[in-house]
Amino acid sequence: MLKVGVLGAGHLGKIHLRLLNQSEKYQLIGFYDADSINGKKVADEFGYQYFENINTLIDSVDVVDIVTPTLSHFDCAKKAIEKGRHVFIEKPITNTLKEALKIQELAKQYQVKGQVGHVERFNPAFSAVKEQIKNPMFIETHRLAEFNPRGTDVPVVLDLMIHDIDAILSVVDSEVKQINASGVSVISRSPDIANARIEFKNGCVANLTASRISLKNMRKSRFFQKDAYISVDFLEKKVEVVKMKDAPEVAGDFDMILQNAEGEKKQIYFENPDIEQNNAILDELETFADAISENQEPVVTLQHGTQALKVALEIINSFENQSVQ
């Protein structure tokens, strides 16, 4: 078992603590929180060991799980990596691209592994169809959330949209060509609603919408590719797969046949992939343990986290450039 310590005991940090404490692949040593009052409260309530000194905790573990506010990700990761500890970092990887690149450099220098907490990669609905998403040419995502003051210290792009950015980058095998975006601040000082259009060099176009002031929650992505339409509901953990193939010469009574202007006939059929229910956060933490133990590449590498951050920051820069014009 790998000895693990958690940095940060906020809402998500407490979830990580609970799951790591249950995991058979980790031994939870304890946690650190910069707010000592909160730290002692969590320790009293749940029985986890609270470390008042961050370095003492890092010295006591093999893996450091960083679930602190984004602004402190870099400093926490740097401390851990320079002590030779593997790091799991919640998304976004860091606050700036420069910091993210430095984390990659340090991890290579000290020969440690790192994984970024893009949890939707482990969503059972996405996992069920990811291998079927091949060369998508149009992607549309909607990630809407009811207002919650937690997370409003960063733009909605880094809070919500970055989940979809990472998922899209994981299935589109092409570099980004151009980004156009707009964002609106309604309640927060940073944008609460954003829309981005990402054009890739291979011709794929992704249209992303994110809002944290909606009246209902929604997390849906739609992938359109040659002869297939794939819809993923990340919230309800459901998928819809619609495919087309050449129509048979003699169609059955219940076959769905379409004919285009050139007279070509296609048959529409539906697939229902099996969805294995899971705890996505536990899965991402335990696959990281496997990557360390088996000396393999993590599912979501530091490089993946950096690429998602780079696109997210370009979207935010597009807001700013738009407001200047």
TrEMBL record:
Classification via SUPFAM superfamilies: Glyceraldehyde-3-phosphate dehydrogenase-like, C-terminal domain, NAD(P)-binding Rossmann-fold domains
Domain Gfo/Idh/MocA-like oxidoreductase N-terminal residues, every copy: 2-118
Gene3D superfamilies, per database record: Dihydrodipicolinate Reductase, domain 2 (3.30.360.10), NAD(P)-binding Rossmann-like Domain (3.40.50.720)
InterPro entries: Gfo/Idh/MocA-like_OxRdtase_N, Gfo/Idh/MocA_Oxidoreductases, GFO_IDH_MocA-like_dom, NAD(P)-bd_dom_sf
Domain GFO/IDH/MocA-like oxidoreductase: 153-216
Molecular function via GO: nucleotide binding
Superkingdom of origin: Bacteria
Pfam family for this entry, one: GFO_IDH_MocA_C3
Official protein name in the record: Gfo/Idh/MocA family oxidoreductase
Species whose genome carries this gene: Euzebyella marina
